[in-house]
Specification:
7-stranded parallel β-sheet; 25 strands; binds glutamine; ATP binding; nucleotide-binding; CTP_synthase_N
């Protein structure tokens, strides 16, 4: 049976709970333990799949096709453990399960209440897979005191009571604000947030205190005294230059030791931190810099492309070069002379996106990269717009477009070389979709295989592999019936679904490096195992740097 670590936050949001959880997972692994990380989100959406990237940042997709919070991306990047559908739950999902059971008559006439029915549903979820790992780390979204969070906190309280003693601990993150006028670090908000936790029956075992200033021992002792936590379990967490410093920084601050101590694990196994030492060595000993233009539609919010930006960093680490991404709003390229915004970059990326806005700018970016022979990586929408560009400007289909951008559903304005996907094969099952289906969870989601053409650039990128598997999230698809015409014009279909019906990878023949992929390779990239497409894209960009 796994030991459980619940991670909560207080005082303010955005304290880096996800990062602290991920770093703790990595540190427990470094001590030889197996871990799994989970996220419990108190909002009422069933999953974040229908939320705008401006609301919630990137939607992280798992191998088994769940649309999840971007914190699951941190968990994977730090531990390498692939998240599953059962590692993410929202209040919306919990209530929807409870209501479905009620409609099926499963509660045998009982009155349905938050306690015990909602809390039981949460506890059942927490227990999934408990025999598989040594430690289960469960992060609760939001801050203590939020109304939506209460059923989750109550469920944790019950869960801890029902387990054998010493099998569940609580780690709480807070902020120590710095008052410049009086030159003081303030501990009162932390005291209040712990008081709030204690009023609902929860006592933290470990307190992680974010602070911009050094926390003096005196203040640590005071926090320990007022919050009923041992002094060496008050862990300072200072701002870091890179998130990848977090495992080593938290280790130096004593986090993993405090956690093992709270479980009374003694003596603690010695940690092997070489993986993180190597990561830091690559980050700090990089030579030169490549500038990458990322042409997207949610560029005001970097979190909307979290995994792309992390994968670029990993690609830089693989090549020991610094990567400077610059976010360019695709719409700006649609202005007169807008293409000049792309001058001087060593590589161009067009990441995923939804809807028509900015797509003409993305098409312009693909054309620029193709004609000026700048390395280009098109991801999902970035592949679809690259295909439209090639159809228009290489194959002479001048009105080529996508049904997604055509309000008439492809009937009037364009020749839809990208169409609304209606059926595909998943394993040995046929999946069918209609344009008026509900929006939530109906895309082609999760890991699918692409069969690669031998001798192609993509197969070289993957060391001669003939098959790759990456995660998908799309409703539209390049129409394979244009394959011959586009290939004759110079756009090779170098990766296909195993049944040869869905184009998965395209590349421009004779171009130094131009690839479009329907999947999202950024989702599987790790600092210690960079996604091959990003590593090779940055390698090609670095060659450009030499040429400039
Ligand atoms: N909007 C496109 C589709 O649904 C691309 C999706 C994406 O980029 N993730 O097919």
């Amino acid at each position: 049976m796994a030991r459980y670590i619940f991670i909560t936050g207080g005082v303010v949001s955005s304290l880096g709970k996800g990062l602290a959880s991920a770093a703790l997972g990595a540190l427990l692994q470094a001590r030889g333990y197996t871990v799994r990380l989970r996220k419990l989100d108190p909002y009422l959406n069933v999953d974040p799949g229908t939320m705008s990237p401006f609301e919630h940042g990137e939607v992280f997709v798992t191998d088994d096709g769940a649309e999840t919070d971007l914190d699951l991306g941190h968990y994977e990047r730090f531990t390498g453990v692939s998240a599953r559908r059962s590692d993410t739950i929202s209040a919306g999902r919990i209530y929807s399960n409870v209501l479905e059971k009620e409609r099926r008559g499963e509660y045998l006439g009982k009155t349905i209440q938050v306690i015990p029915h909602v809390t039981n549903e949460i506890k059942d979820f927490l227990a999934i897979g408990e025999d598989e790992v040594d430690f289960m780390l469960c992060e609760i979204g939001g801050t203590v005191g939020d109304i939506e969070g209460l059923p989750f906190f109550e469920a944790i309280r019950q869960f801890a009571q029902e387990r054998p003693r010493g099998k569940v601990i609580l780690m709480h993150l807070t902020l120590l604000p710095w008052l410049a006028a009086s030159g003081e670090l303030k501990t009162k908000p932390t005291q209040h947030s712990v008081k709030e936790l204690r009023s609902i029956g929860l006592q933290p075992d470990v307190l992680v205190c974010r602070s911009e200033q050094l926390i003096p021992d005196r203040e640590r002792a005071k926090i320990a005294l007022f919050c009923n936590v041992r002094p060496d379990s008050v862990i300072p967490a200072y701002d870091l230059k890179s998130i990848y410093e977090a495992p080593l920084a938290y280790h130096r601050a004593g986090l993993d030791r405090a956690v093992l101590d709270a479980f009374q694990i003694s003596p603690a196994p010695r940690p092997d931190l070489s993986r993180w030492e190597d990561v830091m060595d690559r980050l700090t000993h990089a030579e030169g810099e490549v500038r990458i233009a990322v042409v997207g539609k949610y560029t005001e919010l970097e979190d909307a492309y979290k995994s792309v930006s992390e994968a670029l960093t990993h690609g830089g680490m693989a090549n020991r070069v610094r990567v400077r991404p610059e976010w360019i709003a695709a719409e700006d390229l649609e202005q007169d002379g807008g293409t000049h915004l792309l001058d001087g970059y060593h590589g161009i990326i067009v990441p995923g996106g939804f809807g028509e806005r900015g797509t003409e700018g993305m098409i312009t970016a693909a054309q620029y990269a193709r004609e000026k022979r700048v390395p280009y990586l098109g991801i999902c929408l970035g592949m679809q717009t690259a295909v439209i560009e090639a159809a228009r400007n290489l194959a002479g289909i001048t009105d080529a477009g996508s049904q997604e951008f055509d309000r008439d559903g492809g009937a009037g304005r364009c020749t839809p070389v990208v169409y609304h996907l209606k059926e595909w094969v998943q394993g040995n099952r046929k999946v069918e979709r209609k344009p008026d289906d509900a929006k939530g969870g109906t895309m082609r989601l999760g890991a699918y295989t692409a069969v690669l053409k031998s001798g192609s650039l993509i197969s070289r990128v993957y060391d001669g592999a003939t098959e790759i598997e990456d995660r998908h999230r799309h409703r539209y698809e390049v129409d394979v019936s244009y394959r011959e015409q586009l290939e004759a014009a110079g756009l090779a279909f170098s990766g296909m679904s195993p049944d040869d019906r869905l184009p998965e990878v395209v590349e421009i023949e004779g171009h130094p490096w131009f690839i479009g992929v329907q999947a999202h390779p950024e989702l599987k990239s790790k600092p210690f195992a960079p996604a091959p497409l990003f590593a090779d894209f940055i390698r090609a960009a670095k060659e450009q740097e030499r040429m400039v």
